[in-house]
Amino acid sequence: xxxxxxxxxxxxxxxxxxxxxxxxxxxxxxxxxxxxxxxxxxxxxxxxxxxxxxxxxxxxxxxxxxxxxxxxxxxxxxxxxxxxxxxxxxxxxxxxxxxxxxxxxxxxxxxxxxxxxxxxxxxxxxxxxxxxxxxxxxxxxxxxxxxxxxxxxxxxxxxxxxxxxxxxxxxxxxxxxxxxxxxxxxxxxxxxxxxxxxxxxxxxxxx
Length: 207
Description:
This protein is mostly helical. The chain is built from ten helices and no strands. The longest helix is centred in the first third of the chain and has 27 residues, at 18-44. It is elongated, with a radius of gyration of 21 Å.
């Protein structure tokens, strides 16, 4: 490799190789489709016309089908994308807030995630092979995140010392709190999660 070539591709330079530009463009298209699909699914359901999704994403139908040949592929990708966004919110919360506040805020975020994904329930339990790996993905992303939040809060003395908390049990409990009330369709999740965290911290002795 010549010195001139090294200078063009070395640290601090902009890599303009066509392959990298294509990959970056493809990733932007994928991200736009996932964001648009999540918004459309939330309002119109998972059977919404493809044109609604592509119009919101600003891409053509060919781009959608190139990335997601079947609707089930798109639904599964949206679910993973939203799981990642929720899980990835935890580190930022831990940097910004006290441990127990970060825990409370993340549980609220998780409850909101579950509530907005109720519309995907029928699709996710349809038996389509595209969805087979999603329950395991859900556990793999959320259990370690919640374990870290709980351990950090416990180490700071922000949680009751007489509790042995299983992250999976806590995730399940919060998910159950997001069930809408039958008489009016409203979910008491936000206030219930607040009460749940208050119970976890009751009698704690901060260090």
